[in-house]
């Protein structure tokens, strides 16, 4: 069906407005993990500096999309800190849970604890460790379906997922090509979260030492 420019404009505004606050949290948590894992930060910066145009100081869309390690860093951040930490779904038909006698009846509301799934040692070895290589192509192929769902799953999968990852990549390029991050005396390990939000939100902010690259 035909969609006029005004309707399309409203749609884009909804997608963008519902994205930026969550992405701010994601970027901060990514920088937090990079500060605690300097080896990961240096590997990421090396990839970024190779992609940045020396004369203009920016990066093309094509190069941005090709940043594979950056992509893995973002996905690992989403694993440890899924911004939408839980979701609910309504069962559309009776379902018997494999390996048990439990039957989830049609119409039952199911709570899905995304945060807990992402940190389950049954799916992720040493789940508290920040390891972007979990998202190497081979590791992704071997992962059980439904164990990495920061953007949901199925017909209600977030339509802004690729856009969100692209924006975070762009932010990391602009930030890490100019600054380095490390922990300071005010850095809390582990990070603390507020319980007053529908989204994963850091309590009292994140404190890091920021230094300009020479």
Automatic annotation (TrEMBL):
<comment type="similarity">
    <text>Belongs to the cytochrome P450 family.</text>
</comment>
<dbReference type="GO" id="GO:0005789">
    <property type="term" value="C:endoplasmic reticulum membrane"/>
</dbReference>
<keyword id="KW-0492">Microsome</keyword>
<dbReference type="InterPro" id="IPR002401">
    <property type="entry name" value="Cyt_P450_E_grp-I"/>
</dbReference>
<dbReference type="Pfam" id="PF00067">
    <property type="entry name" value="p450"/>
</dbReference>
<dbReference type="InterPro" id="IPR017972">
    <property type="entry name" value="Cyt_P450_CS"/>
</dbReference>
<keyword id="KW-0349">Heme</keyword>
<dbReference type="InterPro" id="IPR050476">
    <property type="entry name" value="Insect_CytP450_Detox"/>
</dbReference>
<protein>
    <recommendedName>
        <fullName>Cytochrome P450</fullName>
    </recommendedName>
</protein>
<keyword id="KW-0503">Monooxygenase</keyword>
<dbReference type="GO" id="GO:0020037">
    <property type="term" value="F:heme binding"/>
</dbReference>
<keyword id="KW-0479">Metal-binding</keyword>
<keyword id="KW-0472">Membrane</keyword>
<dbReference type="GO" id="GO:0005506">
    <property type="term" value="F:iron ion binding"/>
</dbReference>
<feature type="binding site" description="axial binding residue">
    <location>
        <position position="158"/>
    </location>
    <ligand>
        <name>heme</name>
    </ligand>
</feature>
<keyword id="KW-0560">Oxidoreductase</keyword>
<keyword id="KW-0256">Endoplasmic reticulum</keyword>
<dbReference type="GO" id="GO:0004497">
    <property type="term" value="F:monooxygenase activity"/>
</dbReference>
<keyword id="KW-0408">Iron</keyword>
<dbReference type="InterPro" id="IPR036396">
    <property type="entry name" value="Cyt_P450_sf"/>
</dbReference>
<dbReference type="GO" id="GO:0016705">
    <property type="term" value="F:oxidoreductase activity, acting on paired donors, with incorporation or reduction of molecular oxygen"/>
</dbReference>
<dbReference type="InterPro" id="IPR001128">
    <property type="entry name" value="Cyt_P450"/>
</dbReference>
């Amino acid at each position: 069906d035909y969609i006029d420019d005004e309707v399309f404009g409203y749609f884009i505004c909804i997608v963008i407005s519902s994205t930026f606050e969550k992405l701010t949290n994601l970027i901060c948590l990514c920088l937090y993990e990079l500060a605690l894992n300097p080896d990961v930060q240096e590997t990421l910066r090396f990839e970024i500096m190779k992609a940045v145009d020396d004369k203009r100081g920016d990066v093309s869309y094509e190069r941005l999309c090709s940043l594979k390690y950056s992509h893995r860093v973002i996905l690992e951040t989403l694993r440890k800190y899924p911004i939408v930490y839980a979701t609910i779904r309504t069962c559309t038909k009776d379902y018997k849970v494999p390996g048990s006698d439990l039957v989830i009846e049609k119409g039952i509301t199911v709570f899905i604890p995304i945060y807990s799934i992402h940190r389950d040692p049954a799916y992720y070895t040493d789940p508290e460790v920040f390891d972007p290589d979990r998202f190497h192509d081979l590791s992704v192929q071997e992962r059980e379906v439904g164990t990495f769902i920061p953007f949901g799953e199925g017909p209600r999968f977030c339509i802004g997922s690729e856009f969100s990852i692209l924006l975070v990549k762009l932010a990391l390029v602009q930030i890490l090509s100019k600054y380095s991050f490390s922990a300071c005396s005010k850095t809390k390990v582990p990070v603390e979260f507020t319980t007053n939000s529908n989204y994963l939100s850091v309590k009292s902010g994140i404190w890091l030492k920021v230094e300009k690259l020479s």
